[in-house]
Amino acid sequence: MRRPSRPVANAAAVRGKPGGRPGGGEPWLYGLHAVTSALANPARRVRRVLVTEEAEAAIGRVVPRPWAVGPERVERAKLDALLGRETVHQGMALLADPLPVPRLEEVLERPGPVLVLDQVTDPRNVGAILRSAAAFGAAAVVVQERHAPEETGALAKAASGALEIVPLLRAVNLSRTLAALKAAGLWVVGLDAGGGVLRGEDFAQRRVALVLGAEGDGLRRLTREGCDEICGLHMPGQMESLNVSVAAAVALYEFARG
Predict the structure, then answer these.
(1) Which residues, in sequence order, are CB contacts of 150 under 8 Å at separation 6+?
(2) Is residue 82 classed as helix, strand or coil in its secondary structure?
(3) What region holds the RNA 2-O ribose methyltransferase substrate binding domain (predicted)?
(4) Is the pTM of this model over 0.90?
(5) Among 59, 128, 191, 214, which is least packed by CB within 10 angstroms?
(6) Are 59 and 92 in contact (CB under 8 A)?
(7) What pLDDT is stored for residue 26 in this prediction?
(8) CATH, range 101-257
């Protein structure tokens, strides 16, 4: 039975947060998809663009000039020193202000499911989840105020441009956030192997908030208790679990095909 929609409760507990600053430094984005998506996003306030000669040409093929700011030509060694030698920056780095983040009420005006991450701390997993959220038309991704990564370059690179598409909100209290989503008429589904098999057609008439827990620990007790139901993925093979970002993609596909 569908829960009637009501005004969102405790919406102030969910908010946006400024971009990540590793070690207290500046939030540089890097890599072709992250940089070009930021340049193409009118909501991004770009401060600097550092590029090698080859990278400048590659960006120009995706985002025609003029750009928001003029590029600064640098050698690859400077980017290695700025970002770390192991960073796959593809010869480009962009410094920008964090994106403005809408209120929860505004986010819920967008169509699609909402993803809620319970202590998922790896920025690459959060970035990959954002990418899947954009691919399957999710309205937003909600992480915790604490026990969640900042919006760093590593997260943006893994998101492959999706950080510019899907709002990333932060919840001070996850239990209150789930209650607010329920009050707005969403059916809260926790993804856990202990539940029944997730079938997209079962949710065809419902708008869903999908809750995913950290790898290994899974959903915390209070988070599980805040869900309307618990479901697991159908996995007939010999593996008992999937990486959390892969599990999110499979679950979103189920909802999309339902």
Answers:
(1) 17, 19, 20, 21, 22, 27, 123
(2) helix
(3) 28-102
(4) no
(5) 214
(6) yes
(7) 60
(8) 3.40.1280.10
